[in-house]
Design a protein that fits this description.
The protein has about 180 residues and is mainly β. Helix content is about 0%, strand content about 55%. The protein contains no helices and 15 strands. The strands form 4 sheets. A 4-stranded antiparallel sheet has the order 4-5-6-7, with no helix packed on it. Strands 8-9-10-11 form a 4-stranded antiparallel sheet, with no helix packed on it. It is globular, with a radius of gyration of 16 Å. The chain starts with a strand and ends in an 18-residue tail after the last strand.
Length: about 180
């Protein structure tokens, strides 16, 4: 790619960084949008959330134009990410602390499927596997985090790494390689 997407919590904004080091702030995209590029690199996926007003999942060009709403809900779209083919978006949503769900939005039909629902621990940072059949996520339970995998079709959960409190921190996230 020729550009990086950069989130600056200090500046409260998201921007792009060209290969030559030139930074461009993206108008209308706040740092809490949890933005990421679509697989084709032409659009950005993001989430706007206002307490009491709910969340809006959207795409836009990286110059801030052509914003298109994909979905809205009452609880927001945490850590949204596209599948490798761009046909689906995975995200976490939290009704209350320790009551979280991992959901998948079919971009074409605008239908949402809940893949995993929990009442006793948090599921955060979901990401599709390269083939789209699974979702890797972090499970937070009693201040201990573990990496897990849920099968999109069967909803079966597999533990990848059971943490003892030394590997993960609150800012840990996964990047799944395409091989």
């Amino acid at each position: 790619g020729e550009r990086l997407l950069v989130t600056s919590d200090a500046a409260g904004e998201v921007g792009t960084l060209d290969a030559d080091g030139t930074y461009h702030a993206i108008p209308g995209l706040a740092a809490n949008a949890e933005a990421s590029y679509a697989p084709d690199g032409l659009r950005i996926l993001g989430d706007d959330f206002e307490k009491g007003a709910g969340g809006t999942l959207f795409t836009m060009r990286d110059d801030g134009t052509d914003r298109k709403v994909l979905a809205t809900n009452a609880t927001g779209f945490d850590w949204p990410g596209f599948s490798a083919d761009g046909a689906h978006v995975v995200y976490a949503t939290e009704a209350q602390f320790n009551e979280t769900s991992i959901c998948v939005l079919d971009v074409g039909t605008q239908t949402t499927t809940t893949v995993l629902e929990t009442k006793m621990w948090r599921t955060i940072l979901p990401q599709f596997t390269p083939d789209g059949t699974g979702i890797v996520f972090v499970e937070w339970k009693q201040d201990v985090a573990s990496s897990r995998l849920v099968d999109v079709s069967t909803h079966e959960i597999t533990t990848l790494v059971a943490d003892t409190g030394h590997v993960y921190g609150i800012d840990t996230f996964f990047v799944v390689t395409p091989d």
